[in-house]
């Protein structure tokens, strides 16, 4: 920043998209929530190039392979990464 004339210590915080583990689904809410998480995963993955090219500058820093050690990927998110996944929430 132009008004800062000295070094300033900063802290960078990683941003993570986290979801509750809805498996096994015990009711319709869990099934719908799991489907929504799958949809979000599929939409982000399938549109990552466009998000990086045309979206907010922060999208260019997204690294989908930078998963913290020991953190599992949600089964619901994995459903969305299946090539045959059909969106549960179709677009407008």
Top keywords for this entry?
36% helix; 92 residues; mainly alpha
Report on this structure.
The chain is mainly α. The protein has one domain. The longest helix has 19 residues. The protein is elongated. The model has no long low-confidence stretch (mean pLDDT 91).
Span of the ends, CA to CA? 41 Å
Number of domains: 1
Strand content: under 5%
Enumerate the spans where pLDDT stays under 50 for 5 or more consecutive residues: none
- Number of DSSP-assigned strands: 0
Radius of gyration from the CA trace?
Answer: 17 Å
Most strands sheet: none
The chain-level structural class is mainly alpha
Helix content: 25-40%
Principal-axis shape equals elongated
Quick structural overview:
This protein has 92 residues and is mostly helical. The protein has one domain.
Furnish the topology, listing elements before pairings.
Layout lengths: L27 H19 L1 H7 L20 H7 L11
Helix pairs in contact: 1-3
């Amino acid at each position: 920043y132009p008004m800062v004339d000295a070094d300033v210590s900063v802290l960078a915080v990683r941003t993570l998209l986290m979801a509750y583990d809805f498996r096994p689904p015990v009711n319709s809410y869990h099934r719908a929530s799991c489907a929504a998480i799958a949809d979000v995963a599929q939409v982000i993955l399938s549109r990552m190039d466009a998000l990086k090219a045309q979206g907010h500058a922060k999208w260019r820093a997204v690294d989908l392979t930078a998963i913290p050690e020991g953190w599992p990927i949600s089964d619901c998110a994995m459903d969305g990464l299946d090539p045959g996944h059909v969106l549960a929430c179709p677009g407008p």
